[in-house]
């Protein structure tokens, strides 16, 4: 039985590990042809080499946790923004231009965070970079909508992966946060994958320019 993305081509940034790798595997299982790159910095010649792209998942990201605002080095701040915002901006611009020129529908997902919608203490670069992506996504959706390209943010909570294990095992850090979850637990990879595939699919054909929290109710508590 063919998957729902048979004949579609996808590009996933940061697809070599963690959430990105899981998204790549899920898309392949659904029949898509998937390419990955480590970070969001990509040249137009690479896109031409890849050919037509139907889906872009802007997943690459980084963070420098536990640094107070008054102590942040300018270089540290800029390094996080370079990957989380500038890298995502650059690749989205190149890919969306290819989508428009190809004259076929496309979908872009910017993997944001619940901390793009809520301030996170001791992590200014991360929160600021994700908040910047929130507005970029909205503007992209406005401009690309007439070309049948949808653009949305996904805003996950902590998702259990090898990368997040050190945070989730730090009870002093995690327990106060967990107490704010109405459903009482953090997210699993499957939770995020289901919403990612839904946003890419025609089932979400009327969803664009929005942020979709996958946060277990954290933002309403």
TrEMBL record:
NADP as a keyword of this entry, yes or no, is yes
InterPro entries for this protein: L-xylulose/Carbonyl_redctase, NAD(P)-bd_dom_sf, SDR_fam
Q: Where are the transmembrane segments?
A: none
The record ties this protein, via Pfam families, to:
adh_short, adh_short_C2
Q: Does the record bear NADP in its keywords?
A: yes
Enumerate the UniProt keywords alphabetically. Answer: NADP
- Of which family is this protein a member? Belongs to the short-chain dehydrogenases/reductases (SDR) family.
Protein known as: Uncharacterized protein
Organism for this UniProt entry: Tegillarca granosa
């Amino acid at each position: 039985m063919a998957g729902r993305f048979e004949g579609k081509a996808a590009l996933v940034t940061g697809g070599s590990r963690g959430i990105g790798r899981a998204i790549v595997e899920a898309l392949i299982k659904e029949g898509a042809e998937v390419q990955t790159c480590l970070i969001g910095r990509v040249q137009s010649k690479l896109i031409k080499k890849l050919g037509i792209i139907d889906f872009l998942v802007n997943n690459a990201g980084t963070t420098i946790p536990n640094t107070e605002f008054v102590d942040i080095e300018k270089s540290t701040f800029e390094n996080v923004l370079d990957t989380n915002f500038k890298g995502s901006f650059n690749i989205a611009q190149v890919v969306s231009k290819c989508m428009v020129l190809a004259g076929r529908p496309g979908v872009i997902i910017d993997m944001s965070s619940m901390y793009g919608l809520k301030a996170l203490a001791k992590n200014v670069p991360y929160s600021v970079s994700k908040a910047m992506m929130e507005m970029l996504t909205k503007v992209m959706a406005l401009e690309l909508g007439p070309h049948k390209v949808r653009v949305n943010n996904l805003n996950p909570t902590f998702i259990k992966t090898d990368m997040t294990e050190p945070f989730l095992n730090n009870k002093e850090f995690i327990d106060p946060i967990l107490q704010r979850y109405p459903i009482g637990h953090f997210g699993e990879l499957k939770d995020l994958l289901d919403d990612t595939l839904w946003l890419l699919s025609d089932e979400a054909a009327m969803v664009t320019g929005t942020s979709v929290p996958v946060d277990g109710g954290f933002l309403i508590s």
